[in-house]
Structures are given as structure tokens and as C-alpha cells.
């Protein structure tokens, strides 16, 4: 017998659910905090004071509820409003410093995978980074991290790029993955590390764990202080000897493979070399001035690290060891949102001043839109289009509605069709003839 009770968002809550209390709190959150302006709405600050274990349960309940809301999106006309509120609360909870276990981390990673297209995914990765300050990766945690990484879509958001870099470096620490020398020069480090035993292996593990994929361009003083302690545990002599072995291929004149993770590891080892203040290690690091890389796209971040030895950017450019960094073009999504708020800026939309027809020039097709009916036709094949509602992001749903029942709704559809190379997925062929 199903004795579930639906929440304000329709989510069925079972008294036997171990997250029952957390779901009751989420019910209260949905009903108590009115979202007059969804874009400016912020949860009550008291959520930051939730007991830590309860906060972890709330995160799990939120993720499970968000998944359910996406699965039942077509049945729930206001599902996006509940999701928007839940995402804002999730962001607040992710700012908390929580005592996550490996089980908690795997739960967050695994439950975020089906939500990667709809929520910021940084939270679980941030907690893994914090966890590794005191603990180590396990085969099971690496499996969850790999599944998480595999399902990430390419994006240009700075925070997402930072997260991707951290993931690459985290998974470089996976001691159970098969080695592949063709993947990266740094596979020799992973090979030699795995051959170490006892305390030596543990000290090297701690040294390598300090290398992060999201490190800034210049070595932070706080990082250097921590690095000095870990380097002392390894021993400068051991470090210098291993560095000379690992960096020896740089003098070979042969093009070497360099992965994203390997570029971060190389950068970290250069910083460790500077911290060691050992001239032998410095000479090994300067062999990089003769290196040839196969994947030049990954080389800049590590080569710039030679700045700790006074090697200037101009010298690296003259040796063709780095490429000029150009600013990425503005994201199309941001441009679309600007146009949403500035209807008169639409230069590819031509409307009959007194008539029914609106013509839109997209990046791939032309379209005809009709004021009187809201009908959308693709000129190339006369196909009738309608919104692919499940694909519409929740932020867009604050303005878009399922029904095209006004000039504003028609204009918003026209704006999306201007960028049909990217947003064509937001439309589908209608059954209407």
C-alpha cells in the first residue's frame, strides 16, 4: 500500500523514507518562503545554521527531488519554480563546510550526474577536494568521479573550466587506472609512485596530492608553506633524484605527449623545485626550455610556471613554448538574455508593421512566425515547430510559457530562433499540419 503524501511540488513523501524529515523541511521551505521575484530570491540565512549532518541529508533530499521534478516535468506546470527555489537552497548548503564521508561524496557525485545540464555541478567536487586534505581517493570514489567527468558537457563558464581541471588532476591520483605512456609524459611519475612502498610512498602521495588543477598562475605563499612541509617529509635528496629521472625526457628532442592533468602536475613540480631551493632541481626544471610537446594546447599553464626562475613570458613566446592567450568570445546564452531584455535590438527579425507575418533569419534557417496564431514555420521544409518544453532551461521558463499567446512570447521564440545553431534543440517538429 502506497501511503505517500505529496509535497507542495507534487513530490511523493513516504514516512518510511530515511530522508522523511529532510523532505518535510523542504516542504516548509517551498511554502514558507514566497518567491515574489525568482531572479532575486534568496533563501533565509538561517539555512546556513542547519546542523551539519542534517545539511548533508538535505543535500541528498534536494538532489533526489530535483531529479524527480525533471522526470515529471511535463505533468507539473510549475515544476521549474520549485526547481529554481531548490537550486538556490542547494547553493547555500554547498557553501557549508560539512564532514562528508566517502559515501556522502559518492552520493553527491552520482545524484548530480542526471542533473548536470540543469544545476551548477561544482559543489560535490569542492567537497572531494576538502575531503582529500585528510583522506585519500579509493577505487570506488574514483569510479564516481569518472562517471561524473564522463557526463560533463563542454562549456566555457570559468567555474566549470576550473572544476574540469580539478577533476583531471584528481583522477590522475587514481592508483588503480591502467597506465598508458602514450597518454602523457607524466605516466612515468604514476608508474614510479606505484612502485614505491611504505612511508616513502605515503610521503610522495601527500606531496602529489597538494598539486591542484585550479591553482592560480603565480604560486601562493600559503601553498609554498604547505609544500615546504611535504617536501621535507619526502626529503630533498629523493625529490632531486626523482625529478632528474622524470624530467630527463625533456632533453631527448622527441615530441612528448602532455595531457591536461600532466600539465598541472608539471606546474606543481616546478613550484616544488622553487620551494626546494636546490640548484640541482632547478637545473632539471630548466631542461623544459628544450622540450617539444605534441599537445601544444595544454602546455602554457605549466611553462608559465618557469617564471619562478625568472623565465619571462616573452622568452617562452620566442622559444615557441607557449601560445598567446586570447579572451574567449562572449557566450551566446548571455547575448540571448541581453536581447530578451532589449527587444528593439533584434536586427534579424523583420515584422510587417500592420500584418500578421514575422520573418526571422536564423544562423541555419529562415522562419515564418504568425502573430494571430503563434504558429512557427521553418521555410526550408515548411515544417511547423513548437517549443521542446522539456529542453527549456528553468531560467528561460521565467519568461517563456508553453503557450505562444502574446507578442512577447512570439518575440522570445523569435530571439531563440536567431541562434538556431545552438538553440534549435529548444524546438521540435509539431504534429500540427
- Mean model confidence by pLDDT: 87
Helix run count? 19
For the record, the count of structural domains works out to 3
Shape estimate: globular
* Series of H and E elements: EEHHHHHHHHHHHHHHHHEEEEEHHHE
Oligomer: single chain
Uncertain stretches of 5 or more adjacent residues: 328-333
Structure description:
The protein is α+β, with helices and mostly antiparallel strands and 433 residues long. It folds into three domains: 5-172; 187-318, no CATH class; 332-429, no CATH class. The protein is 48% helix and 6% strand. The protein has helices at 20-32, 52-71, 79-94, 102-112, 122-131, 139-150, 158-172, 187-195, 198-209, 221-234, 236-247, 260-276, 279-285, 300-304, 313-318, 332-341, 394-397, 407-418, 420-423; strands at 5-6, 12-13, 349-351, 357-361, 366-370, 376-378, 383-387, 427-429. The chain is globular, with a radius of gyration of 27 Å. The relative contact order is 0.06. Residues 328-333 have low confidence and may be disordered.
Q: Secondary structure elements and their pairing?
A:
Elements: E1 5-6, E2 12-13, H1 20-32, H2 52-71, H3 79-94, H4 102-112, H5 122-131, H6 139-150, H7 158-172, H8 187-195, H9 198-209, H10 221-234, H11 236-247, H12 260-276, H13 279-285, H14 300-304, H15 313-318, H16 332-341, E3 349-351, E4 357-361, E5 366-370, E6 376-378, E7 383-387, H17 394-397, H18 407-418, H19 420-423, E8 427-429
Antiparallel strand pairs: 1-2, 3-4, 4-5, 5-6, 6-7, 7-8
Amino acid at each position: 500500500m502506497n501511503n505517500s503524501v505529496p509535497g507542495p511540488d507534487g513530490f511523493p513523501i513516504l514516512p518510511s523514507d530515511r530522508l522523511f524529515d529532510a523532505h518535510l523541511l523542504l516542504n516548509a521551505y517551498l511554502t514558507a518562503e514566497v518567491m515574489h521575484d525568482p531572479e532575486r530570491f534568496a533563501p533565509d540565512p538561517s539555512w546556513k545554521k542547519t546542523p551539519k549532518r542534517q545539511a548533508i541529508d538535505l543535500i541528498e533530499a534536494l538532489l533526489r527531488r530535483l531529479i524527480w521534478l525533471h522526470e515529471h516535468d511535463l505533468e507539473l506546470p510549475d515544476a521549474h519554480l520549485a526547481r529554481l527555489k531548490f537550486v538556490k537552497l542547494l547553493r547555500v548548503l554547498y557553501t557549508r563546510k560539512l564532514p562528508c564521508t566517502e559515501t556522502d561524496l559518492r552520493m553527491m557525485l552520482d545524484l548530480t550526474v542526471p542533473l548536470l545540464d540543469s544545476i551548477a555541478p561544482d559543489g560535490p567536487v569542492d567537497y572531494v577536494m576538502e575531503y582529500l586534505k585528510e583522506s585519500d581517493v579509493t577505487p570506488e570514489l574514483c569510479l564516481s568521479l569518472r562517471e561524473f567527468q564522463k557526463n560533463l558537457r563542454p562549456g566555457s563558464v570559468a567555474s566549470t573550466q576550473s572544476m574540469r581541471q580539478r577533476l583531471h588532476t584528481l583522477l590522475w591520483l587514481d592508483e588503480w587506472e591502467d597506465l598508458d605512456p602514450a597518454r602523457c609524459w607524466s605516466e612515468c611519475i604514476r608508474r614510479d609512485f606505484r612502485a614505491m612502498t611504505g612511508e616513502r610512498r605515503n610521503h610522495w602521495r601527500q606531496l602529489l596530492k597538494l598539486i591542484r588543477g585550479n591553482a592560480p598562475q603565480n604560486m601562493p605563499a600559503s601553498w609554498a608553506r604547505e609544500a615546504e612541509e611535504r617536501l621535507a617529509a619526502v626529503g630533498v635528496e629523493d625529490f632531486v633524484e626523482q625529478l632528474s629521472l622524470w624530467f630527463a625526457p625533456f632533453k631527448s628532442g622527441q615530441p612528448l605527449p602532455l595531457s591536461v592533468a600532466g600539465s598541472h602536475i608539471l606546474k606543481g613540480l616546478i613550484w616544488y623545485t622553487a620551494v626546494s631551493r636546490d640548484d640541482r632541481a632547478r637545473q632539471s626544471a630548466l631542461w623544459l626550455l628544450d622540450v617539444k610537446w605534441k599537445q601544444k594546447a595544454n602546455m602554457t599553464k605549466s611553462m608559465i610556471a618557469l617564471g619562478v626562475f625568472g623565465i619571462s613570458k616573452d622568452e617562452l613566446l620566442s622559444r615557441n613554448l607557449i601560445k598567446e592567450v586570447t579572451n574567449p568570445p562572449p557566450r551566446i546564452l548571455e547575448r540571448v538574455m541581453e536581447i530578451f531584455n532589449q527587444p528593439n535590438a533584434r536586427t534579424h527579425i523583420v515584422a510587417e508593421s500592420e500584418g500578421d507575418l514575422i520573418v526571422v533569419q536564423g544562423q541555419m534557417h529562415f522562419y515564418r512566425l504568425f502573430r494571430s496564431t503563434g504558429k512557427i514555420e521553418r521555410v526550408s521544409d515548411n515544417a511547423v515547430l513548437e517549443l521542446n518544453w522539456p529542453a527549456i532551461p528553468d531560467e528561460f521558463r521565467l519568461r517563456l510559457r508553453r503557450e505562444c499567446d502574446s507578442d512577447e512570447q512570439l518575440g522570445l521564440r523569435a530571439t531563440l530562433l536567431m541562434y538556431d545553431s545552438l538553440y534549435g534543440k529548444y524546438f521540435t517538429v509539431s504534429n500540427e499540419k
